[in-house]
Structures are given as structure tokens and as C-alpha cells.
């Protein structure tokens, strides 16, 4: 069997599992639900056999769980093993089994590369988020002191003021935050536009630096 065919078949199993889980969200007959359950059991069996083969093929068995992807696949198999009945835990178990589609991540190398890159970028993303928090916290007290009498629902305190600032930063209907203020303070748009510009530049620079550092690390 060629490698391409193996990857295709291996990726088909979690995809079929996701389709089966999604099928349960529709009103189906008992026969159809039974078929979905049987498909789920078959997929779990395939997952288990594949994991067992990989464990047997590991030269040093103690190193099997040192691989994060092996731990990930083992967790997916474990949450799929318990049978689903009509008990109170059945609903929770079905929710957990939806995560079997995550098995695609460990099958497709491109997805694994993206996940690995995201995990490596977490420290850099943390500092970007910290910088955004500092920017929001600077504008928060300012908005609370200046705009509290005009729009107390949004600017009555620092904690309250930070929420509309996050809304403005994400550009989620941010004009509804600015327009009531601008009716009283015609030049308030300068405050809002400067906040959007600074926050966006901070995110852009942070992401670009993270991508550049990751690229240099990959080259090394």
C-alpha cells in the first residue's frame, strides 16, 4: 500500500467519525442511529488497532508516551472506548466523541506543523496579549474619567471601561461605542482612532516578529 493511500485511508476514519457524530444531531430512525453507533465502534476499533501496532513497533516501549502525538491519539481512543447507553452520562460521552475529528491533526503532517508552530508561538503571543492589556488599561482610566458622565453604562469604572475598549479593538460594532460619546465630545474620535491604530500596530508587529523568529528557528 502506498504512503499516499495510507494517509488517505487514515484520514478518512476521523472524517467518517465526524460525519457520524454530526448525523446524530438530526432526527433519525432507530435503524439509522444503530448504524451510526456501529460505525463509531468500527472506527474506535481501527483507532485502537493502529495505536497498538504503533506501540508494538516502538523500539523502546517506555518512550511511547514521551511523544506528545502518541499521548494525543491515546486520549482520543480512550474517550471512544466506553459504550454509549441511555444513562445520564451518555450525552457527555457523545460530546467527547465529537473530538475524534481531532485525529485528523495527527494524521496530516501539514496540520501537525501548524499546531506545533502555534504551540511554539504561545510565549510570544503571551507578550503580545500583555502589551494589549497595558494599552487597554491606559485608555480605560482615561475613558472612565472623561466619558463616565456621558455614558455611565460603559464608562462608570476602569473594569467596565475595558469591555467597550475590547469591543472597539476588535471592531465589533465599535461605532455604537463611539457615537454617543462623540455627540458630547466632537473630537472623541481622535481617542478611539488612536486606540485602534496603536492596538492594531501592536498586534501586527507582534505577529510579524513571532513569524520571523519562528522562520529563523526552523532554518536553524
What does this protein structure show overall?
- This protein has 220 residues and is mainly α.
- The protein has two domains: 3-107, Up-down Bundle (Four Helix Bundle (Hemerythrin (Met), subunit A)), CATH 1.20.120.350; 113-219, Orthogonal Bundle (Helix Hairpins), CATH 1.10.287.
- It is built from ten helices and no strands.
- It has helices at residues 3-23, 30-57, 68-78, 90-97, 103-107, 109-147, 152-155, 158-169, 175-182, 188-219.
- Helix 1 (3-23) runs antiparallel to helix 2 (30-57), helix 2 (30-57) packs antiparallel against helix 3 (68-78) and helix 6 packs across helix 8.
- The longest helix is centred in the middle third of the chain and has 39 residues, at 109-147.
Q: Layout of SSEs?
A:
Elements lengths: L2 H21 L6 H28 L10 H11 L11 H8 L5 H5 L1 H39 L4 H4 L2 H12 L5 H8 L5 H32 L1
Helix pairs in contact: 1-2, 2-3, 6-8, 6-10
| Gross morphology | elongated
Helix-strand sequence = HHHHHHHHHH
Distance between the termini: 35 Å
Rg (CA only): 25 Å
Strand content: under 5%
CATH architectural name of the largest domain: Orthogonal Bundle
Largest sheet: none
Task: Give a count of the beta strands, DSSP E runs of length 2 or more.
Answer: 0
What's the number of helices? 10
Provide the residue-averaged pLDDT. Answer: 77
Number of domains: 2
> What is the CATH class of the largest domain?
Mainly Alpha
Helix content: over 70%
List low-pLDDT spans.
1-8
Looking at the structure, the CATH topology of the largest domain is Helix Hairpins
Helix-strand makeup class: mainly alpha
